[in-house]
Amino acid sequence: MRQHAPSWTALRRPVGSPVALRETSILIAALIATFLFRERFGGVRLTAGAAVLAGIVVLELAYA
Asked: Other CB atoms closer than 10 Å to residue 14's CB: what's the count?
């Protein structure tokens, strides 16, 4: 099996930071769906978004 080279960010920062940055795309996609496509931003999305945001904060604080 071929090994993948680590990304540029993974070489310069702890792994938590790039992972947290990648997870923000979920929040951005939910906001785009809400404002551009007029989808509902109900309780499930709000709860999931809060969980993602809390995870990002925890990862960033762990490596601060």
From this structure: 14
HSE (CB half, 13 Å, CA atoms) of 45? 13
pLDDT digits (tens, 9 = 90+) for 29-59: 989 999 999 999 899 989 988 998 898 888 7
For the stretch 20-33, pLDDT in tens is 777 788 889 989 99
Spatial contact of 5 and 38, defined as CB atoms under 8 Å apart: no
DSSP class per residue in 2-63? PPPPPPHHHHHS-THHHHHHHHHHHHHHHHHHHHTS-----HHHHHHHHHHHHHHHHHHHHT
